[in-house]
Amino acid sequence: VSTRMKDYVTRKSTNSRLPPEVNRILYVRNLPFSITPEELYTIFGKYGAVYQIRLGEKNKDTRGTAFVVYEDIYDAKAAVDHLSGFNVGGRYLVVLYYQPAKFQKRQEAQEKQQEVEELRRQIKKKKAAIAKADK
Length: 135
Known about the structure:
Structural class: alpha+beta
Strand order of the largest sheet: 2-3-1-6
Distance between the termini: 88 Å
Number of strands: 6
């Protein structure tokens, strides 16, 4: 049995009950806009095998964020435990477990807000048209 496997079995037995929010996928916020995927691999790779990193786009709302996917849930937990609040390029990282339900709710709330704003614009136009017609 390899040392890595022994290490895994030891960790698994000592941490047999992980909190339900623990996930292999991490959501990282407050990254410097100039950070590269290679730099993220260097930082997050210290805690275990990284399966994938997806960096937010530079010209959108997602800049300064990333998703980091670990191959092992215990490596992800170690990264959250050690890197939350870690200073990178003068910014303190916010490292969270990805929770699809929360992201879905936030997305739905944003869509509803846009829908409300569009309805308000339509009402404003109609009121202006009615006021113009009454003159």
